[in-house]
Each structure stands twice: as C-alpha cells, then as structure tokens.
Amino acid sequence: MKTRRLGVGLASLALVVSAAACTGEGADATGAEGGGSDPVKVQIAPEDGAKKVRPDLPVTVTADNGEVKTVKITQSGGAADEKESPEGEGGGKKATAELNDVKGSLNKDKTEWVSTQTLVPGADIKVTATAENGDGEETEVVSEFSAEAATDGKKLEVQSNFPQSGETVGVGMPVIVNFDLPVTNKLQVENAIEVVSEEPAEGAWNWFGDKMAVFRPSEYWKPEQKVHVNMRLAGVQAADGVYGVKNQRLDFEVGREQITTIDDKSHQMVVERDGKEIKDFPISNGDASTLKYTTTSGVHLTMEKYAHLVMDSATVGVPKGHPDYYKLDVNWAVRFSNSGEFTHAAPWNGSLGQANMSHGCTNMSTADAKWFHDESLMGDPFIVEGTKRELEVDNGWGYWQRSWDEWLEHSKTGKADKTDDEGTPGASTSKPENGEKENAESGEKDQKDDKESAGAGN
User: Fold this and answer.
1) Is 228 one of the catalytic residues?
2) Is 300 noted as a catalytic residue in this protein?
3) Which of 75, 128, 178, 232 is such that its CA lies 20 to 30 A from the CA of 165?
4) Where are the beta strands (DSSP E) in 336-379?
5) What are phi and psi of 371, to 5 degrees?
C-alpha cells in the first residue's frame, strides 16, 4: 500500500507535485510538524498486492482519527476496457465507461466507506483514498490488486432484452431481461440493475423462472420521456460461482399514451390517445365455444406486429389433421398475447360489430386493422373486458395483471425503486463471511469481516 501525507490546505497541490511515498504494511503517516492532532490512519481492503479477489466482495476504506474524504476506484483489463458491447439478439447495447465506476457509501461519522457495486472480473483495480484529521491534514493511500476472472461456462450474460436501445415504446412497456444462465441470487441481480426515468416513477423487478427478470413501474410510464437502464452486472455473483462479466446500458423512449379497450359484449374497440378517444372500431372476438377459442380478458400489451402473417393453429396446440385445424394468411397483425391472440384483418368475417366468430383473435376490417397496425407501438396497453377467460400474468406480457402490491410482494427486494434518481434499494455486493479466504500472490490471505478487513494501515 502506498501512502502520501498531504499538508493542511495543500491537498490539491500535493496531488499534482510528486511527493515521497512510504510503503509497507503497518506504516504510519505522520502529521505536520507541530500539529495538534494525531495523523489519520487509513486502511483499504482488499490489501495492496492481493490477487484473485472475489469481484462481489466490497471494497472498504476506514479512517482512524479522522474522516474519509474521497475514494476513487479505477478498473482496467478484461471487460473493463470495452467501450461498447456487441448488440446481440434482443439488444443489450453500450457498455459505457461510467458504468465501470464503482460507487459506495459513507457511514454516519464518515470513518468508513464501503462499495455498493461489484468489480469487473479479471480487472486490475486501483483504489485511491484520502482522509483528513482534525487539523485538516490529508493523507492519501493507494491499494492496487486484481479481481478474480470468471470461468468458462459460468459467465452470466444478457441473452436478450426488450425493448432494445433506440426504440420508442408504449406507456405500459416493461423492461425485460433474459439471461443465458439460471440466476439463483436474484436479490443481488435486482440490485445491480438501475432504471432511471426523466419523469418520477417507482417500480420493481419480478422473476419468471430463473432466467427472466421483468421491471414494471407501479403505474403506466408518463408519456414522452427517456428511460435508461444501467445493467451493472459485472462481478455480480448470480449463482454459485457464476459471475456477470460486463456492464451494459439500455436507452429507450416512451412515446405518446395510447390505450385500447375492447368491450366483448358490444363488439367494439375504442382507441384513446393522450386521454382522448380517437377511434371506435367494430370487431369480432373469439367465439368462446371452447376455452381455447375465448379471447382473454385483462390488461395486455401490444408485443409485435406484422404486415403479413401465416397463422397456423399447430403453434397453439391444434395440429394438422385435427377437425379444428386452420392455417390462414392474414394481413396487418398485432400480437397481444402468447396464446395466439392478434388483432388482424379478417375480410371474410361478416359479423364485425355484431357477434364473436373468431378462434380467439380480434378480427377487424382491412382498413381498420391497417390503421391499428400502423399506429401501434410495442408496449401499448390493450385491455379486453367481458370474456370468461382471464389473461395469465405470464401469457405474453400480462404483467399488469398483478396489482402493484402483488408485484411488490414478488420482488426479491420487497421495496419500490424510485426511478427519478440513480441507485437501487440495496447493494449488489456480497458480505464476506468471517474467515473467508481469498488467494493472494504469497498464498492464502484471510479476509476478515468488514470491521476487521485485511489491509495495510499507513
């Protein structure tokens, strides 16, 4: 560990001018001659020269006989040097330099700083900390060590995400992140992903299986704003021995507010934009002869759209050769569930506005279906009322089927995350257990608990 004593009021000058540094474990920084206060002693853990430090263990800076003033952590090597990550299927764009900055928090009396974010696996780490005694004399301490690299087969990465960077979406759009490996430490992963919106909101994550996390605000997004998702996954231990390997950023925009409501009984579809009705269409829903042919009621979201689509009943469990098998070429289709439900043109249906005659889709005239296709954004709320089949929360993007209280109960943090400022409900780091070991160049070195962290006091 390297230490520099910075004179009273001369900290900024001393940082520029080369000064003699003392190194070595247990070396004390001496105060200015004649000073009334004892010099401040600073400890950093992990200690200088440590190798293969677990990237999810916190960095700790403590000051004895003074206060911690600044902590700066720089990372180089491995994914820390990547300026932009590849945009794979579903997005996951931009690993920006600022996402590799490591943030932390001070205790009340400013004697201890603890990182709340993880380190990049395989990176070389430099911690520079300054502390000040009662006379205003500052001491700078530097610790340099390396983080353990993630092993092949245990590198957690984002397989896909919705929306993708650069997209404009509807006010109901969630943030959906699909991982390539199962996540068992869901709390740490939730706390590693930060959602920031221009307009104040609160939201939370729910999990659907071990590979998909979904963030939803408590109410629809306010329209016409930008949303940023900082996925600080590098160094997060997602499962036993499985670490995130890179940080990524997702940027999208929320567009105008468009909400569609269907009354199954009256066979009408009403489209409202920014609180005003702009369209009223005659439609024909599922005939409800079976549960499968009943349009689902509830709050759906528009998911994707096609100018032309082949609809094959085999994809929803009715194979070729079955009496109810069908294969149709349709135009202007907009998906609103994963159970085969679309709005689409159905010029063959003579019962629009009068009766429900479809296999579960919402049939429309060609002109009306084209208008709805052209004017829809992914994530527009699409509400169906009056049928006897309820939309399941995991059928497509039925996430608004859970009340906010239910959604919050399913979050691993159990707390709402405010999106109008940076931060998450908790830290993504793991607390070290007493006596936990980490490899060092000279062999095994004990990693004590956060009040007895190993480190050279200078």
Assistant:
1) no
2) no
3) 75
4) 342-345, 362-364
5) -60, -45
